[in-house]
Amino acid sequence: MKQGQFNLEEERRKLVLARFSTLNPESKIMLGSGEGISVKDIINHIERQDEFGKKVVDVQINMLKILAGGA
Amino acid sequence: MAKVFLVSRPKHDTITSYLFAFSQEIVKTVKEMEGIHLTELPEESATRENLEKALAEDSPKLVFLNGHGNKRNVAGHKDEIILDEINIHLSEGKIIYALSCDSLEELGYSKSPKFSKIQKVIYYTRKSRNISIINEICYYIGYSAKFMIVIDPSRTASPNKDRNALPFKKACATLINSLVFGETVTAAIARTKEEYRQSIRSFGTSEDDPYGDVPLVRFALAWNLEFLDMRGDGEASF
Hints:
The structure holds 2 protein chains of 2 kinds.
Chain A: H1 8-21, E1 28-31, E2 36-38, H2 39-48, H3 51-67
Antiparallel strand pairs in A: 1-2
Chain B: E1 3-9, H1 14-22, H2 24-32, E2 36-42, H3 48-57, E3 62-66, E4 74-75, E5 81-83, E6 95-99, H4 117-128, E7 139-143, E8 148-149, H5 166-180, H6 185-202, H7 214-227, E9 228-231
Parallel strand pairs in B: 1-2, 1-3, 3-6, 6-7
Antiparallel strand pairs in B: 4-5, 7-9
Helix pairs in contact in B: 5-6, 6-7
């Protein structure tokens, strides 16, 4: 990609990362399988851009659309 | 003849204690209703043997499974696997709502060879036409990813007083209530998804969020909204 070119996926990822970075890194979501996942772990997944991290970005963007009244 | 509603409710750790509390109201409601017989498998009785016996002998039309799970199975008391590909044929013709992780992903698509011949004809006919195959055998509602809950650690002894867990409880109650009162699977899921959206919009303010949990609660609700789905006939009803 050329310098300065807008990358929507990257911007979405940065936005979601910025939002999770404002939270307590030790706060946890409990998973139905029994274990928990911390904000710190979620941020690591987003940074690694693994399958779970990509799902987190998609879900968070959809959540923002709901809050904005667009979904 | 009374319709039969079967519910398994293990309660051996934090998550199952919350799910147990979530299903308390529907169990109470159904016990007071005429025309519906409740078969309940609470706590230690949520075993594979008891589930198989109830599926075979009571012929429930609606089955509500609470507990841990993964792509291939749903668990009961102390995480004993109570439903998997080996015994999924017992769910033939029934509406299964699994409040557990992931199980929709593979178990919901299960094509057990023990399903009846008529149903197998449907399966093979669809296969020969190269149409994507869905499970027409039972009507499976569940989550195709981890089910998420945000809890207040100071409230784990009394899940019903946990304000963080309340919107998750409301969504779960919406789905099972819709099914019990005869809505189609598709309508019940649509109603539940709207409940999730409503909770995302309305949950919490900075004044009543001393631990900063609101953004996490909203995210977890959005996650469950995204991955709640069904396989089978959406027009089926209890």
